[in-house]
Amino acid sequence: MPPASPGAASLERMWAHYSEPSFIEVDGLRTAYRRKGVGERLVYLHGGGLTRLWLPFLEELAADHDVIAPEHPGFGDTGSPETLEDMHDYVLHYDALLDAFGLNDVHLVGHSLGGWIAAELAVFYPRRFRSLMLITPAGLRVADRIAPPGLDSFRLEPEEALAALLNGRSDRYTEFFEQEGFPGDVIQAFTESTTRAKLSWNPRYDRKLDHRLPRVATPTLVIGAEDDRLVTNAVARRYAELIPGARLAVVAGAEGEPSSHLVQLEQPGDVAALVAAHIAASTAPGARPSAEANS
Amino acid sequence: MTDYEFNVILDGAYPEVPYAGKRKSNYIELPNAYYDRTLGQRVLEDQLETLVALEGLGFDGAVMSEQHNGPIGVLGSPMLAGAYLAARTQRIRIGVIGSIINAYETPIRLAEEIATVDTMSRGRLIVGLPMGHGMQYHSLGVMNPAKARARFREAHELLIAAMTHPGPFEWNGEFFQIPYVNLWPKPLQEPHPPIFIPGGGSIETLQLVAKYRYTYFPVLNPRPVLLKNVERFREMCREEGYEAAPDQIAQVVAIHVAESDKQARLETEAHELWQYQNFFQSPMHDNFPPGYISPGSMRGILGGGYRSKPMKDMSFDELVEMGWVIAGSPETVAAKLKEQLEEAGARRVIIGANAGSKPRWLTMKSLTMFAEEVIPRLRPGGKPLWAERPLVGYDTQSEYGARRPADAPVPTAALGDGLVDVTTAHIQELREVLEPWPVG
Predict the structure, then answer these.
(1) Of A155, A197, A202, Cβ closest to residue B291
(2) Contact predicate A225/A271, CB 8 Å
(3) CB spacing of B302 vs A195 below 8 angstroms
(4) Contact B142/A156, CB-based, under 8 Å?
(5) Do A197 and B298 touch (CB under 8 A)?
């Protein structure tokens, strides 16, 4: 639930990287978002977690972009409408959200589940976005297993999930995962994974994306990791294959530490730089869709 | 004296598996390389033969459950065992409690199975409608825990409508859209077999059972929680405008009888602990997959208001204290069971006869002692309830002849100059045209 008043919120919500959300009505749903910065407009769609936060990589981008980071229905401080059933409800929600903001020409960035949502949006509204960036995205069927052995995202203990997200380095990032403490954090995670289950319990991909992704008509950058244990590297590669002209950029981890699913948390500067460069290239005079084809 | 109903449940567990404590869980992804066909044949045989034997022992009902992808039970479709028992027994009630409706692509399929087994068994079927353990939601590909309760609600309504409303009718729901709901066959029992609903204690489940006047059986509730839930159930029945009947409450309890209290404990203690330590050793997210319960219920569970400790960590004494196990001499078992049933106001009991690993001979020893020495203490004369309950339908061909409706349509076929009555068409003198009908 959103806080009753800003005063109460600041007392209750003292966790790291918290910033007070704003709210906008989207088709009657009070939708939480954070917005900061001036410049090209960038909408960031979060993954299956890391809500109720303002991430450092967004802070970097906000230095010269207008960054808008909404929280999905059923995540963070955005309510879960009764009518929410599947990915198409998200697609319509985000179309309506952009209308509510009066935005018609934005750069779209999505991470993990958010990457999947972003890809769907670019399929259904191929001319609505100036560019598309998918960071370790989920949502495609690949030849390999969707849930690698022992890494079913719906069946992980919190510590196992953190280990899979950050390749065993989660102890360096505890500040991003401790909010209310017990039991509040467990209930929040359960609520958000319930939303995720509505969208992706079965099947855990959208098989139609395989033949729909060629509709995407906006310059696309896929940002992959060296060792994405949760979604697997194959999904990012496959997005880059299926979207016309898309480029795959794999972000390197630190020395001897292959980068993880949460690459934007571990390498915020590198990911922000890739996003900024892609936005710049896509908005440069003469830039056309698929300008980066075959690069 | 209350006329208790003694049902016995056997899940058909497959015990030759590694100790779950060394793993995350023995559900979901225990490799089926551990399934040996010979051992599996024996598990099913033990389960079915024990269930068949209950009739001769004098129990009122033989009951089984649906389990998937793991050693907790080998009946993925308990209705199959229901059909088997219908053929192997004559009088005992058959409790398929039951089929996980969300495992069916359509509840109409379940309605058809219910109708068939009820007809086969001469109206002896009892149907249970469980949600299914959270652990069951991973292996069939048609169940989503986040939509399970809503789908269950609609599937239940449709199931009942199919059995009670004249067909054909349209069903235009959220999960099912069926242009022609038109159930053939219908169950033998009118309008449908009795329905038992298990529940951990969610308000929603209690309301459903109260509204439809079903039988509620609390599962794995600690004793005080069970009593609270039963009381809440009674209140809900009152809100529906009636007083709950004692047979609307069934109590589930594992029972082992032996010559003395000490002997009973020796015989059953390790087997009970085997079940709790191997079946209930599952992580939170498997017990409660996303959306399987509401966030509010999750808060209650995390707050510790439900069970004081994980079931896998319980000692035998704690299982007894929870009211989940009764072990003892016939005298002890009769007294404790009577006390439990009276306290809960339950007329029905579902006796867990084998926690899984207990050998058939030991199960039979306990069941025989229960039949011969406990039932007579609780039921004067010792006769099973079915002794007084006529089977549904006809017994003999003469009765069939007397009962068959006179106004049913005559089966006809176009032959020669028109429609003829096919039942007499083989007799030249009787083969006559009932009405003209163009042929060819």
Answers:
(1) A197
(2) no
(3) no
(4) no
(5) no
State the first-to-last Cα distance of chain A, in angstroms, to the nearest integer: 46
Average pLDDT of span B341-362: 95
Q: What is d(CA B209, CA B195) in angstroms, rounded to the nearest whole number?
A: 9
Q: Are strands B93-96 and A40-45 parallel, antiparallel or unpaired?
A: unpaired
- Angle at CA of residue A257, ends A256 and A263, nearest 5°: 145
Q: What is the pTM of this model?
A: 0.93
Residue B300 — pLDDT band, cuts 50, 70, 90?
confident
Say which of A157, A182, A197 has its CB closest to residue B290.
Answer: A197
Question: Are residue B426 and residue B326 in the same domain, yes or no?
Answer: no
What chain B residue is nearest to A193 in terms of C-alpha separation? Answer: B290
Residue A2's pLDDT is: 45
Amino acid B440: pLDDT: 63
Into how many domains does chain B fold? 2
CA B174 to chain centre: 27
Residues B307 and B425 in one domain: no
| Residues within 8 A of A (CB atoms), B 139-168 only | 141-147
| Pair (B183, B318) in one structural domain | yes
B299 contacts on A by Cβ (under 8 Å): 183, 187
- Would you call B27 an interface residue with chain A, using a CB distance cutoff of 8 Å? no
Partners of residue B216 on adjacent β-strands? B197, B249
Domain with B422, as residue range(s), is 409-436
Let me know if residue B398 belongs to a domain: no
**Contact call for A186 and B298, based on CB within 8 A:** yes
Residue B403 inside a domain? The answer is no
Q: How far is A190 from chain B (nearest CA, A)?
A: 6
Mark whether B338 and B418 lie in a shared domain. Answer: no
State mean pLDDT over B107-113: 98
Closest CA to B191 of B93, B89, B114, B86: B114
A191 chain-B contacts, CB cut-off 8 A: 295
- Scanning B286-305 for CB atoms below 8 A from A yields 286, 288-291, 295, 298-299, 302-303
B428 and B342 part of one domain:
no
B297 shares its domain with B354:
yes
The answer as to whether B185 is a domain residue is yes
Spatial CB neighbours of B381, under 8 Å, sequence gap ≥ 6: none
* CATH number of the domain where residue B311 is located: 3.20.20.30
Contact A272, A61 (CB under 8 A): yes
CA distance A96 to A101: 9
- pLDDT (mean) for B287-303: 86
> Which among B141, B298, B299 has CB closest to A202?
B141
* Pair (B330, B420) in one structural domain: no
For residue A1, is pLDDT > 70? no
CB pairs under 8 A between A and B: 54
Give yes or no for a contact between A124 and A213, defined as CB atoms under 8 angstroms apart. Answer: no
Where do the domains of chain A lie, and which CATH numbers do they carry? 6-283 (3.40.50.1820)
- Whether the per-residue pLDDT at B310 is higher than 90: the answer is no
Question: Using a CB-CB distance cutoff of 8 angstroms, which residues of chain A are in contact with residue B144?
Answer: 197-198, 201-202
Which tens digits make up the pLDDT trace of B364-380? 999 999 999 999 999 99
Band (A11; pLDDT cuts 50, 70, 90)? low
Is the pLDDT score of A7 beyond 50? no
Highest mean pLDDT among B17-21, B107-111, B282-286: B107-111
Residues 6+ apart with CB under 8 A from A24: A30, A31, A33, A70, A97, A100, A101
Nearest to A190 among B28, B144, B298 (CB): B298
